[in-house]
Design brief:
heterotrimer; A mainly alpha; B mainly alpha; C alpha+beta; A: MetI-like fold; flat; C: alpha+beta; seven-stranded mixed β-sheet; four-stranded mixed β-sheet; 19 strands; transport (chain B); MetI-like (chain B); cell membrane (chain B)
């Protein structure tokens, strides 16, 4: 296991480097921050001066060299827009995103696994049809649509919940609920499908043939085997969430990293984009590592 | 006991096979309706723009937000008019083409590429597998909306570019699922047996492993179809998706969202189109799973009498 | 509250949310569309910063009076001023003014503020208003300062309404703790979440009623409107016309933005006056008002709003006349003007509420009279590439739909950039226009107004420089417990001292 972690860390470092290179050059292809930062009727001298201050006049490769050198000293540079260290801006936002992702994914996993397995026990039954339908309809509606309808309904009409923002536990209800819907539908489907296959597979039949009538035992054994594809999907969904929930954050004014990234690319605030990519990528690499370890635990046949 | 890999039944003549398929479809009424609905949508996508794009772009500011269920202005206004007084029904039909093209294109591309890479990663040597998985990690840790925004800033937001962007962001999900399944399946007895009997690698991968994975992939693909349609609409929400005068359902929902409290039909109908299409695909895929699975097929062959 | 303690804290906290509105609550909550990412006084001319900082934290020597008829300059930190000679203006500073750090305000502070704003170490936005001129401040005594400009600046008092004053000790780098002479100080700032201002006790002027203000940021207009409705906020300075459906809460105001189509005179067929006229007659301007754009939107005949000095009231917007437009096009075509050449109509996503719908309608109207138009929507960076010089080499003829904001009361902040042959966003090169701009810029009083007026008329009727569309209207949603009306300046500043309670 230790060797595996070591190898993965090395591989992850390479991937991270690849990501930084990719983002550095791709984002700089999208345009010049000077034109955006300064007013539209700024003079040529102001533009030149701005580029000089922020080191945008150097050749691209020199800029990249400087960036990497600084990065190795864990210096992520300044945010052009906010005039403070980019990493501070990103970490502040990431703490919010992390909380949001953890809470939502925990709720999603528990409910989806429970409901999905129950649905698989009686394929085509009423419960099966109902959960499938509800989860699907929910997962098929655009999230910004759900979010705005939820605000109109629960905040404006009923007055139960605050519209947006942060501050109390109630502020979390709507964002989490909106975020919940899509991964829930997806994971529920995968759990159900995977459980159906597992329930009809050889070892369950063997167990039944041997006279194991105890449903809980069958359930636990089946679930354990059915979890492999489920974990993959949970991992993907969690990764997507660690990258920030752009739409939800935008609508609910939630200060997470997703909105920060989109705002920063809009403003061409390159250092913030890069810092947020590095932070979220690290988080995702760590999570992937945990998932691979989960595989190994669940299925001893898998060796790394 | 050895579970045999599904082997397509080649004894029947084509007409007979079609009949069997139809009968099995009829056995599941939900799937049957879904198939019909999808046929209609595909017909709209194929013929809609040619027939209706003129009517769908006729602006009339003095007759905006016409309410639905009124035939006064002609059948195209059955679902009401939009903020520019254009007929919603006609627009939904015309938009079907771009929507389906983007979604189907992105799903097909990502599924083919992702599955292929996943098979390689799962079955080939460890080193190749590791390289592929790290590439997947890079894409996965690249926030998909951010990637889309950056690429669409560099390229123009056309249908083709949207397909590319959305496909790239969806590859890892197929890749990882395929690999995970391959890792498990290749240890199963029937694969081991085939290997011992000297079957070639392509034969093992395509005849023995792939068919077992396909049902899972189909489930993901149908859900992904919805995901891609929604991602496309999220891009519209952020203002960087398909740009007018081109239309997609996602763009229509996004444009109509500000009228939710005053003219709900603007966002509701295209939203419903997305939901129904996704739902149909999913019902069909559930049916397909059952039909493709030799252990489960009897449920349909017995004419829908569920036990 | 720190994020990591949030959950625990929130669980312990009561279930209440939003500002608990007690009888004696003199706090207001303002919800803005765009985050205030800096609180630097020298950036206060940027609207997302100005709404928080300008005249609340940092004050200026003079102030443009927008309440009473408009156009006048009011004293603020300067009590009076006079012109010493053609190039020099003398400002007499208010006595007994202190900064929020306790230090007193004098001429040295003004000099430093100007030097800091113009410094090339930092990119202050205010500097753009002083570009193309050479201004030297000179301290006369502790409470008197001279500004000498080359070339002469007849509107020096107006220019001084843009310079925010900071203490002379302020370092030349962006500050996160702004010190000003204004009635409020920055009490708390959680980037991305909120900013809080609190009232000072030792302000030189009248004590404002509002004791503190919290600023929140929500991008979606529907959410902003909902927040005022649910008492989570008191003022939403910009909600879209669609949400503004409650006359009790929603107040419309001219937001000083003018929407127009910049025509590229260097490219055929837009180099032909008949073609430009045809564009103007093809657009049914009135159909937009009350439908896609709110009631109260005015048809434009100049790029500056009617509150500007020298406004030409004699100009009338071109009538909607598709027949005439078609006839003009035919006439031009008969003389060999390539009228069927593809023209790109360029719009900017998210520019104003309903921008996409407006652009689609313009596209439809122009196509309807026979133009071969291709609609392209761009996000802001790409848009500015097309809007500002140097224009791309291999471009189509372009109609760029842009908004221009000038609430400063004088056309000088617009005309050079938009119409001078050297102007960065100019689509024309006309010797007479250049000359008029130069003359008006140097003139004062009546003469200045007359020259601007002449220029507006010449551009609109003779050159047909562009397709001027609308003076836009914004909506503010205001909680009923407040007594406050938005003005044309609300787009760029929001003075808490103007707010009273019912």
């Amino acid at each position: 296991m230790k060797r595996m972690i070591g190898q993965r860390a090395a591989a992850s470092f390479l991937a991270l480097l690849g990501l930084v290179v990719l983002v550095f050059f791709l984002s700089r292809l999208t345009g010049d921050p000077a034109a955006l930062y300064l007013p539209i009727d700024a003079s040529q001298e102001m533009l030149e001066n701005f580029r000089e201050i922020h080191g945008l006049n150097d050749p691209l490769l020199v800029q990249f060299g400087n960036y990497v050198t600084d990065l190795l000293r864990l210096d992520f540079g300044e945010s052009i827009r906010k005039a403070r260290p980019a990493i501070d801006v990103v970490l502040e936002a990431f703490v919010w995103t992390l909380q949001l992702a953890l809470i939502t994914m925990a709720l999603v996993t528990v409910t989806a696994v429970v409901l999905g397995s129950l649905a698989a026990f009686r394929v085509g039954g009423l419960f099966d049809r109902l959960t499938s339908l509800i989860s699907l309809v929910g997962a098929s509606a655009p999230d910004f649509w759900i979010a705005i309808v939820a605000i109109v309904l629960f905040s404006v009409q009923l007055g139960w919940l605050p519209t947006s923002g942060t501050g109390s536990v109630w502020h979390w209800v709507l964002p989490v609920a909106v975020l919940f819907v899509r991964p829930f539908g997806l994971i529920l489907q995968v759990v159900r499908g995977s459980m159906i296959s597992a329930l009809t597979s050889a070892y369950v039949k063997t167990a039944r043939a041997k006279g194991v009538r105890n449903r809980p035992i069958i359930f636990v054994h089946t679930l354990r085997n059915a979890m492999l594809p489920v974990i993959t999907v949970i991992g993907d969904q969690a990764a997507a969430m660690l990258n920030g929930a752009v739409i939800v954050e935008t609508i609910f004014g939630f200060p997470g990293v997703g909105k920060l990234m989109i705002d920063s690319i809009l403003q061409r605030d390159f250092n913030v984009i890069l810092a947020s990519i590095v932070v979220t990528a690290l988080a995702i690499f760590i999570m992937n590592l945990l998932i691979d370890m989960a595989y190994a635990v669940l299925d001893p046949r898998i060796r790394y | 006991m050895i579970v045999s890999a599904p082997v397509p039944d080649t004894n029947h003549r084509p007409a007979q096979r079609l009949f069997t398929v139809l009968r099995m479809l009829w056995a599941d009424k939900f799937a049957f309706c879904a198939a019909l609905f999808l046929l209609v949508i595909f017909a709209c996508a194929l013929l809609g723009p040619a027939a209706l794009s003129e009517a769908a772009s006729q602006v009339n500011l003095r007759g905006r937000n016409a309410p639905p269920f009124s035939l006064e202005n002609g059948w195209q206004f059955l679902l009401g008019g939009d903020a520019l007084g254009r007929p919603l029904l006609a627009r939904i039909i015309v938009a079907a083409q771009n929507t389906i093209m983007v979604a189907a294109g992105a799903v097909a591309c990502s599924m083919v590429i992702g599955t292929t890479l996943g098979l390689i990663a799962g079955y080939a040597g460890r080193r190749v597998g590791q390289v592929i998985m790290r590439l997947a990690d890079i894409i996965m840790s690249f926030p998909s909306l951010l990637l889309a925004v950056i690429v669409l800033y560099i390229l123009a937001p056309s249908v083709g570019n949207l397909i590319i962007v959305l496909a790239i962001t969806r590859i890892p999900i197929y890749l990882r699922t395929t690999r995970a399944e391959v890792l498990e399946i290749r240890e199963r007895m029937f694969v081991q047996a085939a290997r011992v009997m000297g079957a070639s690698t392509p034969r093992i991968v395509f005849r023995h492993i792939l068919p077992v994975i396909v049902p899972t992939l189909m489930t993901i693909a149908t859900l992904d179809f919805a995901f891609v349609m929604l991602a496309e609409s999220s891009l519209s929400f952020l203002g960087i998706g398909i740009q007018p005068p081109e239309i997609t359902w996602g763009l229509m929902v996004s444009q109509g969202r500000s009228y939710l409290t005053t003219a709900w039909w603007l966002a509701f109908w295209p939203g419903l189109a997305i939901i129904l299409t996704t739902l149909s695909l999913n019902l069909l895929s559930n049916w397909l799973r059952t039909a493709l699975d030799p252990v489960q097929r009897w449920r349909l062959e017995l004419g829908g009498k569920k036990t | 509250m720190k994020p990591n303690h949030l959950l625990i804290g929130a669980l312990l906290a009561s279930a209440s949310f939003g500002p608990a509105i007690a009888q004696e609550n003199k706090n207001v909550t303002v919800v803005l569309a765009e985050e205030t990412d800096l609180v630097e006084p020298c950036m206060a001319t940027r609207s997302n910063i100005g709404r928080v900082v300008l005249q609340n934290i940092s004050e200026t020597l003079t102030e443009l009076d927008v309440r009473d008829g408009g156009g006048g300059i009011k004293p603020r930190l300067a009590e009076s001023w006079e012109q010493v000679d053609d190039n020099t203006w003398r400002f007499h500073l208010r006595r007994g003014v202190t900064f929020s750090d306790g230090s007193s305000f004098d001429a040295e502070d003004v000099k430093h503020s100007f030097a800091r704003a113009m410094s090339d170490q930092i990119s202050c936005e205010i500097a753009r208003y002083y570009s193309g001129m050479d201004i030297t401040p000179a301290i006369v005594d502790e409470h008197t300062i001279d500004f000498t400009a080359e070339p002469a600046q007849p509107i020096m008092p107006l220019l001084m309404s843009l310079l925010t004053i900071v203490p002379s000790e302020t370092p030349v780098e962006f500050t996160r703790e702004p010190i000003g002479t204004g009635p409020y100080t920055l009490a708390e700032w959680n980037p991305g979440q909120n900013i809080r201002l609190e009232r000072r006790d030792d302000y030189w002027g009248d004590t404002p009623e509002v004791s503190g203000a919290t600023y929140l940021f929500r991008q979606d207009p529907a959410v902003r409107a909902a927040m005022v409705e649910t008492d989570e906020a008191d003022i939403a300075p910009s909600v879209s016309a669609i949400e503004a459906d409650d006359p009790e809460l929603d107040h419309s105001y001219p937001n000083s933005e003018t929407l127009y189509l910049r025509l590229d005179h260097a490219m055929a067929p837009l180099d032909d006056r008949r073609v430009r006229l045809a564009i103007n007659h093809a657009i049914d301007r009135e159909a937009f008002v009350g439908s896609l754009l709110p009631e109260g939107t005015e048809l434009a005949t100049a790029i500056v709003p009617p509150t500007t000095q020298g406004w030409n009231a004699e100009l009338t917007p071109p009538a909607y006349d598709p027949e005439k437009a078609r006839a003009l096009l035919e006439e031009a075509a008969a003389e060999g003007v390539p009228v069927d050449r593809e023209i790109t109509l360029v719009g900017r996503t998210g520019n104003y509420p309903n921008v996409t719908e407006v652009m689609e309608t313009l596209h439809f109207m122009l196509s309807d009279v026979g133009f071969n138009v291709d609609l392209q929507m761009y996000e802001v960076a790409e848009f500015e590439n097309l809007y500002s010089k140097p224009y791309p080499e291999n471009r189509n003829p372009q109609l760029v739909a842009a908004m221009h904001d000038n609430a400063r009361g004088d056309a000088v902040f617009s005309m050079y950039f938009k119409y001078h042959s050297e102007g960065r966003q100019s689509g024309i090169a006309d010797a007479r226009v250049d000359e008029l701009i130069a003359q008006a810029t140097a003139a004062t009083g009546e003469e200045r107004a007359k020259l601007w007026s002449e220029l507006f008329g010449y551009l609109h009727d003779d050159v047909v420089a562009d397709a001027l569309l609308f003076h836009m209207v914004g909506f503010a949603r205001v909680n009923e417990r407040l007594d406050w009306e938005p003005t044309i300046a609300t787009n760029s500043q929001l003075q808490l001292a103007d707010i009273a309670f019912e």
